[in-house]
Predict the 3D structure of the following.
Amino acid sequence: MPRLEDAEQSLLSSGSNLKQRTQNAWDSFSDFALRDNVLEVAVGLILAAAFTTVVTSFVSDIILPPISLLPFFSRNLEEKFAVLKQGPNYRAHDGYNTPKQAKDDGAVVMNYGAAAAAMG
């Protein structure tokens, strides 16, 4: 059976070892974080976020309004859709007015207007 002094010495040495390993891990992390590459990536991510905002604004505020004036797009680009399969209450002379109305009737709908607006 191990003696009390042996157990105490074992605990002290494992505590010292843990402290040394934690210090080594922290030193390694700080060396990694302070490298130039990490800072460059951080700056790149910030610039990419700003660029995404500028492009989204440009497309939705500058590009899409003139496109929505084209006769086949009319005004509401987000409301443009094609019925791929009609629902049970479909009437040929009326059709569906909105994609929601078509989906509520059980029709299979391709929302190309919403997809085009989401891309922009």
Q: What stands out?
A: Residues 32 and 106 are 56 Å apart (CA to CA). The two ends are 74 Å apart (CA to CA). The longest strand covers residues 82-85. The chain has a mean pLDDT of 79.
